[in-house]
Amino acid sequence: MWAYTVGFTVLPHVGGFLGWFINRKEIPVWYEKLKKPSWCPSRKIFPVAWTVLYTGMGYASYLIWNDLGGCSSKALIPLGLYGAQLALNWAWPPFFFGAQNMKMALIDILCLDGLAIGTVCSWYRINKIAALLMVPYLGWLAMATCLTIRIWKDNPEQKPGKSE
């Protein structure tokens, strides 16, 4: 049974790592030039925060899967919401860093917020510990959403072919 625990716990890290790996060159070049608010966390905080958050959400998803008896019909909505929000979580870095499309990143994170809240609400009735493990993630998403909005507003996107 430990293999399932490890698998569910590691799964969120896979997309997070791939997002970082694919976009790692854009971060020091493009991101550092953006105007950011004074309350923007240091770049050094992000990998630590995401390691903790992905571990918590991954383990929480295992608890839900286990409590619902695996991939049963009862698990479809709670784990479907989780999978959808995880996909949007993984999609944000390519939109923001890869495509440098802050508008798409903003749309993505706003949809992600709704799905993450829906996930926690659906999980609370099944396993309160699993839902509580997602609370730090919701807090981080709130900050990340505010940060995305602020960066989007403070850094108007350049039209193709125009330079500063």
Please tell me about this protein's structure:
- 74% of the residues lie in helices and 0% in strands.
- It contains seven helices and no strands.
Number of helices: 7
Strand content: under 5%
Helical proportion? over 70%
State mean pLDDT (0 to 100 scale). 90
Low-confidence residue ranges: none
Overview features:
164 residues, 0% strand, mainly alpha, elongated
What's this, in brief?
The protein is mainly alpha-helical. Helices cover 74% and strands 0% of the residues.
Topology:
Blueprint: H1 2-23, H2 26-29, H3 45-67, H4 76-98, H5 102-124, H6 128-133, H7 135-154
